[in-house]
Design brief:
It is built from three helices and four strands; from the N terminus they run E-E-H-H-E-H-E. It is an alpha/beta fold. It has one domain. Strands 1-2-3-4 form a four-stranded mixed sheet. Strand 3, helix 3 and strand 4 form a beta-alpha-beta unit. The longest helix has 18 residues. The radius of gyration is 14 Å and the shape is globular.
Length: about 110
């Protein structure tokens, strides 16, 4: 599973501790040194934003309407500098203004 398929929300879960719906994406490929996966990541993030902002999340999962939202990136390999900078800009310019939290964490145990 990778972020290469923007038409799929990889995983939707609910965190009762924070009353937050978590939309997770998974990337198992290496990020590379020149932002090789940024186009895929941008398409995936755009799809996730549309899913939330256009009301599809609330339509498909009415029990989550009004809950906080967090996007999570689970990645097999460390992100490159271009990827880190891109995600910081996305968070600052797109997620924060919409009240969407962000987290990223490495996949352990492989």
């Amino acid at each position: 599973m990778t972020v290469s398929n923007p038409s799929v929300i990889d995983l939707i879960s609910y965190d009762p501790r924070t009353d937050t719906v978590v939309l997770s994406m998974v990337e198992e490929r290496e990020w590379g040194l020149r932002g090789e996966l940024l186009i895929d990541l941008q398409a995936k993030l755009n799809a996730y934003l549309a899913f939330v902002l256009d009301g599809q999340l609330a339509d498909h999962y009415p029990q989550y309407a009004g809950k906080g939202i967090r996007f999570a990136l689970h990645h097999q390999f460390e992100l490159g500098q271009m990827d880190v900078e891109f995600l910081a800009r996305v968070k600052r310019e797109h997620l924060d203004p919409e009240g969407i939290d962000w987290e990223q964490r490495p996949i352990r145990g492989r």
